[in-house]
Amino acid sequence: MAMTITRTRDPLGDLKTQEDIVACLKAALEDGDSKFIAAALEDIARAMGIAFTANRPDSATPRRRFTVAEYYAMAEVGILHENDRIELLDGDLIVMPPIGDWHAASVNRFTNSLPFLLQERAIVCIQNPIRLNDNSEPQPDIMLLRWRDDFYSGGHPGPADVLLLIEVADTSVDYDRSAKLSAYARAGIPEVWIATRQERRIEAYTEPAEGEYTTARYATPGESIAPQAFPDVVLEVDNLIAA
């Protein structure tokens, strides 16, 4: 289950408890238990004016969304850390579940196949950020990016740089199919794949329009699938999704 942090008012002016806040959040993230994380975020809310909700925030609650700049500012002061499983989507900080064995194995299967087949026609980017807009910087599992000799050393890629985006979904499948897929469609990402554990299939979404994908197709074990940007790169579903 993904969890969401939203800010409802400006932080208190005198942050004497900043060290305690940092330690509280760090301990919760290292523990990984969702109930512990929820309790820690409630404590942080009382100290800094940050409200915690599980899943989708209450639409009746006044909210001020975080910006990408504020997201990085929290990292600079030690509230967030490089290895924290947190991403920014539509102004909300999403606490992601730990990476399980199936998820890791499936990502490895994709990353073992794609570079060999693509050669140097695209950059295969693994679990790195994409800046969708000023309020969203998610971290998809895999992206195929337009080739650049500098490998995007000057900044994170944006929507125009993405040829294919792939999410490997186990416990996060509802979040990936709803909030995340909608954000990708609004940003104009041309193609998104969601590899699911429960159905054991690859869902391919294309033709974004008005905040949603208008075309979807599904590939199951025994079938193959190819990115629309590289129709010659044919991938067998059996080789991509872990058992």
- Give the low-pLDDT segments: 7-16, 51-58
The main sheet comes to: 6 strands, mixed
Identify the CATH class of the largest domain.
Answer: Alpha Beta
Query: What distance lies between the first and last C-alpha atoms, to the nearest angstrom?
Result: 22 Å
Number of helical segments?
5
Layout of helices and strands, plus pairs?
Layout: E1 3-7, H1 18-31, H2 34-48, E2 50-54, H3 68-76, E3 86-89, E4 92-95, H4 101-118, E5 122-126, E6 142-146, E7 162-169, H5 173-187, E8 191-196, E9 201-209, E10 212-219, E11 224-225, E12 235-236
Parallel strand pairs: 7-8
Antiparallel strand pairs: 1-2, 1-4, 3-4, 5-6, 6-7, 8-9, 9-10, 11-12
Helix pairs in contact: 1-2
